[in-house]
């Protein structure tokens, strides 16, 4: 296990205007980085493992950016899962018409929500989702804020799946080589920062609300990723299977 504590630093992409050319390029880089990390495959396998009998009806992604990750995930499972609605939450409205059209072509409906994640999750009359996904998002928060976020999320979903950077020496070395893949300065900076703020061991499980209503699974996934799954114990009718210890 990588013994260096988590280090939270500002990522340049979060500070740039949505239409800044460097930000646009970095979001394109993120699609390649997600592909290199195989995050859509990791999350897709977790979903398929837990939803055997029927598809989830509504999936939310927090910190969804331009929706590219969810679109890649949808393409993997759409042959089996039809008429799924996805809600893409981000602070910036960057989900384009092309992405919405590609969701529609897969038989999925995509809605976007522009809001602060804490404000959105904390709405008293907010819906409860079948699945909530966080991809390369949770590492932005220090532990106290992250625990608060996860507590709010637990009240709004039946299953929570996260795929985050793994905090390891190998992942850190890999993050420093992204220039070889053609990534710009923003992506190269943010990749190193992301790994330093990433997770290993059971760090996310320790921050999940402490009660007996959930089963938790947390592990290293792929070469560079760290996955976390929380499933409500009473969600069997929806998922048919629970994430194991």
Account of the 3D structure:
This protein is α/β, with parallel strands linked by helices and 245 residues long. It has one domain (12-239): Rossmann fold. It has eleven helices and seven strands. The protein has a seven-stranded mixed β-sheet with strand order 3-2-1-4-5-7-6, covered by helices on one side. The two termini are 19 Å apart. Mean pLDDT is 91; it is low at 236-245.
Give the key terms.
245 residues, alpha/beta, Rossmann fold, 7-stranded mixed β-sheet, globular, disordered C terminus
User: Helical amount among residues, as a percent range?
Assistant: 25-40%
Q: What is the CA-based Rg, rounded?
A: 17 Å
With strands numbered from the N-terminus, the spatial order across the biggest sheet is 3-2-1-4-5-7-6
The helix/strand class is: alpha/beta
* Bulk shape: globular
CATH superfamily: Vaccinia Virus protein VP39
Q: Would you report the number of β strands? A: 7
- Amino- and carboxy-terminal Cα gap: 19 Å
CATH topology: Rossmann fold
Query: Strand-residue fraction?
Result: 15-25%
What's the CATH architecture name? 3-Layer(aba) Sandwich
Give the overall pLDDT as a whole number.
Answer: 91
Low-pLDDT residue spans: 236-245
Give a quick precis of the structure.
The chain has 245 residues and is of the alpha/beta class. The protein has a single domain, classed as Vaccinia Virus protein VP39 (Rossmann fold, 3-Layer(aba) Sandwich). The protein contains eleven helices and seven strands.
């Amino acid at each position: 296990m990588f013994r260096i504590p988590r280090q939270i630093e500002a990522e340049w992409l979060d500070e740039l205007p949505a239409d800044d050319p460097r930000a646009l390029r970095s979001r394109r880089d993120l699609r390649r980085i997600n592909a290199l990390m195989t995050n859509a495959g990791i999350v897709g396998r977790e979903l398929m493992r837990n939803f055997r009998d029927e598809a989830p009806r509504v999936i939310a992604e927090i910190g969804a950016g331009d929706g590219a990750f969810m679109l890649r995930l949808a393409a993997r499972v759409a042959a089996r899962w039809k008429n799924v609605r996805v809600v893409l939450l981000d602070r910036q409205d960057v989900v384009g018409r092309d992405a919405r059209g590609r969701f529609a072509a897969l038989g999925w409906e995509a809605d976007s929500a522009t809001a602060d994640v804490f404000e959105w999750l904390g709405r008293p009359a907010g819906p409860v989702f079948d699945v909530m996904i966080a991809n390369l998002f949770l590492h932005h928060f220090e532990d106290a804020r992250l625990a608060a976020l996860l507590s709010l999320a637990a009240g709004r979903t039946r299953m929570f799946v996260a795929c985050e950077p793994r905090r390891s020496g190998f992942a850190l070395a890999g993050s420093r080589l992204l220039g070889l893949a053609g990534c710009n300065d923003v992506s190269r900076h943010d990749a190193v920062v992301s790994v330093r703020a990433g997770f290993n061991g059971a760090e996310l499980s320790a921050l999940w609300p402490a009660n007996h209503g959930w089963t938790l699974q947390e592990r290293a996934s792929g070469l560079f990723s760290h996955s976390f799954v929380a499933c409500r114990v009473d969600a069997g009718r929806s998922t048919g299977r629970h994430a194991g210890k």
